[in-house]
Amino acid sequence: MIVLGIDPGIAIVGYGVIKYENSKFKVLDFGVLTTPAGMSFPDRLKSVYDSLIVLIERFKPDAVAIEELFFNKNVKTAITVGQARGVLVLGAVNNGIDIYEYTPLQIKQGVVGYGRATKKQVQNMVKILLNLKEIPKPDDAADALAVAISHIHSSNFKDMFKMR
Fold first, then answer.
1. Catalytic positions, please?
2. N or C: which end of the chain has fewer CB within 10 A?
3. Could you tell me the pTM of the whole model?
4. Domains in the chain, start-ordered, CATH in brackets?
């Protein structure tokens, strides 16, 4: 199974691609998709979409796992990121890929085993579980890998998280 994990955003979208086979994780790629602040918003959305399609064509994931949005401060940012998240979901749907969503609490639980784990604890577990020499950078990429791990760990219950 190949899982594309996504940490949604508009300026920075974290992604992590993990192959899970014979009870072993293999990192295929991770990083960030970025859009410049000076670019028009519609063009930023198109750039996010186009970049996702490149990843889908390259890795042919069996599933896309995406983090649900959690904002408690800036409504404008939440709406902007929500629109970017919609474009990411659309990209997966247009390519016939099943999409699963996870809350930050579910991701922490799926990676660390504790829903109130700190960001540092999650990053350390990502490093350990994926047998990496160091914590993935930037944070958005580490977060996306955590989303993918969470999906793999919960794959027995995946229909609970399926969006469509």
1. 7, 67, 140
2. C
3. 0.92
4. 2-160 (3.30.420.10)
